[in-house]
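Allow me, if you will, to draw on your knowledge of protein folds for a short while. A protein sequence and the structure tokens that stand for its backbone fold form the material at issue. I would ask you to consider whether the tokens describe a fold that such a sequence might reasonably adopt. Thank you for your consideration; the sequence and its tokens are set out here:
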Amino acid sequence: MASDYYAIDAINCSGIKAYHESKAQYYYRFVAKTWEGEQSDAFRLGSMLHTMVLEPEKFTADWTCEDPPAGKAKDSGPVKSGKAYDTWASEMIKRPDQRWHTTAEHDEAALWMQALRNHSKIDAMLEHSGREVEKTLLAPAGDRHSLEGRCDLIIPSERIILDVKTSVSELPGEFRRTAYQRDYHMQAATYTALAEHLYGEPFRFLFAVVSKGDKKASLIELPPTMIEQGHKRLKEQSERLIESLEQWAKGENIPGDWRTDICVCD
């Protein structure tokens, strides 16, 4: 579960990216813990796909179908409006676990899963007898903050880490641009460094990519130059986060709470 992952007293790639986006949001979510954060539909659907692909045996127990109230339909499907729909949507947002889906979302994710399974090399990794799913890697750092990462799938005997992504396009060039924009190269650098620390050998980081619209899958590895840039970005951003964490522990430079005060967007 995501809550267990974030509960570990260490910094991780997701936290580093969250800090880079907003110090205030990071502080009140992970340090003060007075704000739970907001989970997007994209994040929820990504989590659902991960369960379907990586741990299908858990899907029925972990996820529930929650369809909106029936309404007038057009060619594109039910109209997402009206008092009944608004009430339903408001209630769903309040659910703490957010492990739910509509029938339409499930059907869409099932097509993504099938596309991934139809890729022979991806399917072979998903079925590998030595695979480990949702494995947390941790590198202690003495009296400073440790570094951690949770792999979608790792095969230690093959020295491979596999990460499942949905994307606008499965084409390598398009995904490369997406990787830069979303710091996937920093993620790859983080996880390969952690795996090498734990196992004593270098690992490859592969992306199992499925396009949202076309439902086509590809297996992509970022070039060494991008991974090196990811290492540099990881070092720079983690040092900034650790510096802020140490200041906050002393009660210094606490970000303003945007809900009650002025917040500087830095």
Observations:
- DSSP finds eleven helices and ten strands in the chain.
- The beta strands are 10-12, 64-65, 73-74, 77-78, 100-101, 132-139, 146-155, 160-167, 204-211, 217-220.
- The longest strand covers residues 146-155.
- Confidence is low (pLDDT under 50) at residues 1-8.
